[in-house]
Design a protein that fits this description.
α5 crosses α6 and α5 crosses α7. This protein has two domains: 116 residues, no CATH class; 125 residues, no CATH class. A hairpin with a 6-residue loop joins β5 and β6. The protein is α+β, with helices and mostly antiparallel strands. The longest helix has 35 residues. Helix content is 42%, strand content 13%. Strands 1, 4, 5, 6 and 7 form a five-stranded mixed sheet that branches. Strands 2-3 form a two-stranded antiparallel sheet.
Length: 342
């Protein structure tokens, strides 16, 4: 079941963590300004109704914020950092001597939550910033940064072998799933034969019909747009995955080789020289004084900056109902398609 961490500090030689953290410390301001209790509703469905209490989801997301603010990339290093910092202990609600969560538990929790939970968490924070009038919305900045992967170039292996192995495993999993489903269906049919039939006149819950758009398009134009949207690559919906089916004059190395250690990472030319496996993290930042990050997307390093730009800008504009007058980026974003879309 989902546990709840209580904030209790026992005095140690007449001194507690509450007294050791300065009143003007950053994490005190963060605790006062940002209430993370809403995350329990986000993750409630990922927990069982009974059993041993888990790590408080609020503590988990506070650790994610500490990792971001402190520039830490390893959960093992994060927990070492938290054990050494009184301010972090206070922010998490842990007392001196109270055991912190193990780094492996954070990994399992992160995998159980999935990308959608983190995206909802990100949107909830931006929504609070917008409610506090921290989002200007008249100008947007877009850029990306390189992130090295924890994998070496020696881990590259032919892609066809990895995909063939994955396809075989998926096929076997589907076969076993069908057998399990058939056996369950037989059990359900046997049980339902002894039960009275349901009332066919009972009302069926229907979803409300979506509201019509204010603009009515001609049928031919509507079909044309639907065809175009069905064939395009939605970078956000695909979580930044590359278009493997698209090939140009330049053949990508990652189309033929994949890392067995980190399959999502691709070879990346470093600004300092050399090549390493890595990613590109794309940001859309508000032009106001607070510089609020409005949108984030992580892609393999082979994805050019200009490719996901339109999806990032469009989602930022419509998700937060902004009316930007300017979009600022470097020359890599200045393609004809992007300029025309803007």
């Amino acid at each position: 079941m989902m546990g709840t961490k209580e904030r209790r500090f026992a005095p140690l030689i007449n001194v507690s963590v509450e007294q050791l953290v300065p009143q003007d410390h950053f994490y005190r301001h963060l605790e006062k300004s940002l209430d993370l209790s809403f995350v329990r509703e986000f993750v409630q469905q990922t927990y069982a109704g009974g059993g041993r209490p888990s790590i408080d989801p609020v503590v988990f997301f506070k650790l994610q914020l500490v990792m971001f603010f402190e520039g830490i990339r390893s959960e093992r290093q994060l927990m070492r950092h938290a054990a050494d910092r009184l301010s972090v202990l206070w922010y998490l609600g842990y007392d001196l001597g109270e055991p912190l969560p193990d780094h492996s538990s954070l990994t399992r929790i992160r995998e159980r939550y999935g990308v959608d939970i983190f995206r909802r968490f990100f949107d909830a924070i931006v929504e609070q910033c917008q409610q506090e009038k921290l989002v200007w919305g008249k100008e947007l900045y877009i850029d990306s940064t390189q992130v090295n992967a924890n994998a070496d170039l020696d881990s590259l292996t032919p892609r066809f072998a990895v995909e063939a192995r994955a396809a075989m495993q998926a096929h076997l999993a589907a076969l076993f799933a069908e057998e399990d489903a058939e056996s369950e269906q037989q059990e359900v049919s046997a049980d339902s034969a002894d039960m009275p039939a349901n009332d066919a006149t009972a009302p069926v819950a229907l979803r409300p019909a979506p509201l019509p758009l204010p603009i009515v398009l001609p049928e031919t134009e509507h079909e044309e747009l639907a065809t175009q949207n069905a064939g395009r690559h939605d970078w956000i919906a695909q979580e930044g995955r590359q278009q493997r089916e698209v090939h140009g004059l330049y053949q990508r190395r990652s189309d033929f080789k994949v890392s067995t250690t980190d399959p999502d990472a691709t070879p990346m030319r470093l600004k300092s020289g050399g090549t390493h496996l890595g990613y590109h993290t794309h940001y859309v930042v508000d032009g106001g004084k607070a510089r609020i990050i409005l949108q984030v997307l992580v892609t393999p390093s082979e994805v050019m900056d200009n490719q996901p730009m339109r999806d990032l800008i469009f989602r930022t504009r419509f998700r937060w109902k902004l009316h930007p007058c300017f979009v600022t980026g470097d020359t890599k974003y200045g393609t004809i398609e992007n300029i025309k879309a803007l």
